[in-house]
Specification:
Keywords: Hydrolase
CATH class: Alpha Beta
Largest sheet: 8 strands, mixed
Radius of gyration: 17 Å
Number of helices: 10
Distance between the termini: 38 Å
Protein name: Alpha/beta hydrolase
Strand order of the largest sheet: 1-2-4-3-5-6-7-8
Structural class: alpha/beta
Order of helices and strands: EEEHEHEHEHHHHEHEHH
GO cellular component, one term: membrane
GO molecular function, one term: hydrolase activity
Number of domains: 1
CATH topology: Rossmann fold
Shape: globular
Helix content: 40-55%
Number of strands: 8
InterPro entries: AB_hydrolase_1, AB_hydrolase_fold, AB_hydrolase_sf
């Protein structure tokens, strides 16, 4: 199998967006679009996108959201609606610039919520959804996990780890995440506000020992799907299943997409627009 990597910087009305595409030669299958987590970027997916492309025989596309990685600074107006804003404002210019009509959305953590929001707000374009450690509401474990990470980043040299990938944007990224999730105004947030529902097939993956969210999040995400739902709770796994249990995640995603098939996903896609 021949795979190549293509980096592009896309000028958008909101600022330049860095993208990377792992391209499978001669593949005509619907590509997978990756949505990174709250502190993430293209580089922090590490080798997962390439392995995912090989396992599924599909192109995989990742981009640094505005404010992250090699993309421009966030244009401002950060609010509690940042997840929905990504689906409605910032993703469409990226999709159009890359000439992607249909896609499969896969996201990790907050990126999982964003992937669900893409499925909800682009039902005519999103053919399947895969969430990894997606959060569905704010629970005590979520707050405790964020406070523990906040304390860890207070140690000398820890913020430099973020600067390696985000440059001068590192502090903004860290505090946008912490301040949003720990704020009183975000305490009653639920995934239904960002992704009220979706008709495409769903695979939801969650570690039983996830330090940011119990399995209640897995079930809450799954309850939003109406196009066929598969759930994978993973024993002995925390918040990053694709790094902790990569073979299991890759095999499950590949089997899930093979079971759906291009024809079935297209059929569900048409029904969702009816």
């Amino acid at each position: 199998m021949t795979i190549s990597t293509e980096d592009r910087v896309l000028p958008t009305e909101h600022g330049d967006v860095f993208t990377r595409r792992w391209r499978i030669r001669h593949s005509r299958r619907t590509p997978i679009v990756l949505m990174h987590d709250s502190l993430g970027c293209v580089e922090l997916w590490r080798d997962f996108p390439e392995r995912l492309a090989v396992a599924t025989e599909r192109d995989v596309i990742a981009y640094d959201r505005l404010g992250f990685g090699r993309s421009a600074a966030h244009p401002g107006g950060w609010s509690n609606s940042f997840i929905r804003d990504e689906a409605e404002r910032y993703f469409p210019p990226v999709r159009h610039a890359l000439d992607i009509e249909h896609f499969i959305a896969l996201g990790h953590s907050v990126g999982g919520i964003m992937a669900a929001s893409l499925a909800a707000h682009h039902p005519g374009n999103c053919r399947a959804l895969i969430t990894i450690a997606a959060l569905a509401f704010v629970e005590d474990r979520t707050l405790q996990g964020i406070r523990a990470t906040q304390a860890a980043f207070a140690e000398p040299g820890q913020v430099e780890r973020l600067r390696k990938y985000h440059g001068a944007k590192a502090e903004w990224i860290l505090w946008a995440w912490i301040d949003t999730w720990l704020s009183d105004s975000y305490a009653n947030w639920t995934i239904e506000e960002s992704a009220p529902g979706f008709a495409c097939p769903l695979l939801a993956i969650h570690g039983r020992d996830d330090e940011y969210g119990s399995l209640d999040h897995l079930h809450r995400v799954a309850a939003l799907g109406s196009g066929g739902v598969q759930k994978l709770p993973l024993d002995g796994c925390q918040h990053v299943p694709h790094r902790e249990r990569p073979e299991t995640v890759l095999d499950t995603v590949a089997c899930f997409l093979q079971e759906q098939g291009e024809g079935r996903m297209q059929s569900i896609n048409r029904l969702s627009r009816a």
